């Protein structure tokens, strides 16, 4: 296998994050498979509930569906490869596969910020400008807001990936469980100025989304303090959004700061946890938070469960 050719051409990478996991590979495989099945189940359940119920074909629920799709997209870039690596004795990934995995995972993570910003805008219009809601949130605008997170994220992450692919790499050892852009850039033996600049542009772009969300919530809270009805609407529809924002932001900040400035004295297990927690916690918690907090979704899921139980009971009695 050709890992390095005269310290210039890297065709395969080794992933060293698995070194301390191999003794308990069966346990890690079982837990990971269970976690991935749970992610698929809860996200698909929420997506199908929204798609199949015409009463939920409103902007807020459409954007929520978009958030669940983003979660499924990002985890698909990690879990299948991780499960194969846990069962393998050699954890490697091709150069092209590394770029693709990094693109998928970080497109999903960054796309979540854009989707949450869109959801914040929707809640701002619904609560602060209720009489104008239907004239503002037209079908055309909702369509644009659905595709905006994907188009903007794919554009920026694609540029980052292209810049990374132009670097001359001198090493092939990635100290993670999966491929990520910054660890790959650190393997370069040439200038990484362009990649660093693009990284800061991406960071500022999505920091802008966070600032937008915070500002929108300042207006929302001011508006809700004036009306008991708006206060109830805020608690029902905005609290899940706020919890999702804290969840995604905290998880991704841990990954970004640890990836760039992480300590070398901590254990490999903690290192692995820090690297994957944004691929575990948000994809599970987001649909659960919304499924529990949003009354219409909760009632619809309960009605579906009751109807299925009734059908099974009738079949048993027959």
Protein architecture, described:
With 318 residues, the chain is mainly alpha-helical. 76% of the residues lie in helices and 4% in strands. The protein contains eleven helices and five strands; from the N terminus they run E-E-E-H-H-H-E-H-H-H-E-H-H-H-H-H. The chain has helices spanning 25-52, 59-76, 79-87, 95-128, 133-136, 139-165, 181-185, 193-225, 228-261, 268-293, 295-317; strands at residues 4-5, 9-10, 12-15, 92-94, 173-174. It has a three-stranded mixed β-sheet with strand order 4-3-5. A two-stranded antiparallel sheet has the order 1-2. A hairpin with a 3-residue loop joins strand 1 and strand 2. Helix 1 (25-52) packs parallel to helix 10, helix 4 runs antiparallel to helix 6 (139-165) and helix 8 runs antiparallel to helix 9. The chain is globular and about 60 Å long.
Please provide a brief summary of the model.
This protein has 318 residues and is mainly α. The protein has helices spanning 25-52, 59-76, 79-87, 95-128, 133-136, 139-165, 181-185, 193-225, 228-261, 268-293, 295-317; strands at 4-5, 9-10, 12-15, 92-94, 173-174. A three-stranded mixed β-sheet has the order 4-3-5.
């Amino acid at each position: 296998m050709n890992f390095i050719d005269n310290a210039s051409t890297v065709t395969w990478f080794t992933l060293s994050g698995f070194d301390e996991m191999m003794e308990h590979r069966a346990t890690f495989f079982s837990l990971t498979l269970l976690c991935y099945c749970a992610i698929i189940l809860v996200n698909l359940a929420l997506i199908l509930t929204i798609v199949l119920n015409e009463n939920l074909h409103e902007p807020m629920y459409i954007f929520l569906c978009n958030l669940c799709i983003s979660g499924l997209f990002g985890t698909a870039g990690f879990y299948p490869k991780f499960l194969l690596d846990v069962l393998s004795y050699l954890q490697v990934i091709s150069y092209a596969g590394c770029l693709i995995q990094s693109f998928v995972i970080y497109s999903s993570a960054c796309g979540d910020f854009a989707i949450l910003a869109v959801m914040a805008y929707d809640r701002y219009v619904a609560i602060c400008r209720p009489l104008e809601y239907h004239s503002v949130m037209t079908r055309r605008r909702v369509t644009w807001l659905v595709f905006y997170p994907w188009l903007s994220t794919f554009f920026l992450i694609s540029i980052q990936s292209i810049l990374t692919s132009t670097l001359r790499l001198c090493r092939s050892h990635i100290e993670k469980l999966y491929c990520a852009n910054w660890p790959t850039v650190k393997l370069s033996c040439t200038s990484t100025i362009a990649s660093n600049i693009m990284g800061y542009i991406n960071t500022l772009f999505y920091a802008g989304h966070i600032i937008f969300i915070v500002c929108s919530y300042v207006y929302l809270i001011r508006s809700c303090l004036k009306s008991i009805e708006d206060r109830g609407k805020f608690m029902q529809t905005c609290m899940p959004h706020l919890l999702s924002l804290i969840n995604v932001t905290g998880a991704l900040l841990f990954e970004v700061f640890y990836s760039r400035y992480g300590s070398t004295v901590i254990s490999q297990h903690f290192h692995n946890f820090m690297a994957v927690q944004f691929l575990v916690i948000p994809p599970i918690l987001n649909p659960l938070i919304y499924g529990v907090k949003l009354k219409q979704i909760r009632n619809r899921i309960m009605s579906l469960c009751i109807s299925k139980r009734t059908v099974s009971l009738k079949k048993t009695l027959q």
